[in-house]
Amino acid sequence: MAKTVADIEDQISTILNEEWNIRESNEVPSTDSVTHKNGAVKIDAAFLYADLAESTRLQKGYKNTFAAKAIRMYLGGASEIIRHYGGQIKSFDGDRVMGVFAGKRKRNNAVLAAFAINWMVQRVIAPQVKVRHDANGTSVWVPRHGIGIDSGETFVARAGVRNRVNEHNHNDLVFIGQAPNVAAKLSEIREPESIIVTKNVYSYLDAAQKKKLKSGDNPWRGPFGTTVGPHKIDLFKTSYWRSLSA
């Protein structure tokens, strides 16, 4: 049934004036666990955004079939790695994926996932693509990406419209707070270092995440004071990679 002007006005008024039914949780909520009308969940979580760089140039400079493969390789591999380290996949946005980590080791697990995604890009995707392009005599696409991680208390609600019969995916969770917003912005920064985390993440990392396993040197640079939107934060950066661990 088509909506009228009055229907839209009533919907907006209802949303604006109803009270939230808020609960706290130590786990990342699923869409079905949050009431559509006025349900909300507060969680303390780490947010990882992994963003494939220069996807517009990729789509312009290569055939659509290869560009689609490149994006699928990155998003598919990153998603598997996020899940391997206990994260929940909660958002895809073009060539970017968001992973949410909860629990006592949320920051360490998010950083381990970032190391492994960087390994995947540098040691798995790039070599295989080079071999394929060399064999075909075509120009080589060199994958670049950015990962941003922040953590903190976040307000989770459900947005969109109710699904009709036989409809799906017309509503989903939205994550509101500094941590998801900052992590998303950090993933867009194109610097020599592919992984950028906030001090709130770095301060909680184990020694194993702050040192290279062989040399013992700290692979991180920082802190670097900066402003991300309205937030003044300290950042730590690295291009370190570590293969998938058990």
Q: What portion of the residues fall into strands of 2 or more residues?
A: 25-35%
Described by the principal axes of the CA atoms, the overall outline is globular
- Count of helical regions: 7
User: Averaging pLDDT over every residue, what do you get?
Assistant: 88
- Strand tally is 9
Nearest-angstrom radius of gyration?
Answer: 20 Å
Protein described:
The protein has 246 residues and is of the alpha+beta class. It is built from 7 helices and 9 strands. Strands 1, 2, 3, 4, 5, 6, 7, 8 and 9 form a 9-stranded mixed sheet that branches. β3 and β4 form a beta hairpin. α2 runs antiparallel to α3 and α3 runs antiparallel to α4. The longest helix is centred in the middle third of the chain and has 31 residues.
Compile the SSE list and pairings.
Elements: H1 5-17, E1 21-24, E2 39-52, H2 55-61, H3 64-84, E3 88-93, E4 96-101, H4 106-136, E5 145-160, E6 171-176, H5 178-187, E7 195-198, H6 199-202, H7 207-210, E8 221-228, E9 231-238
Q: What is shown here, in short?
A:
The protein has 246 residues and is of the alpha+beta class. 37% of the residues lie in helices and 29% in strands.
Write out key terms for the chains shown.
246 residues; alpha+beta; 7 helices; globular
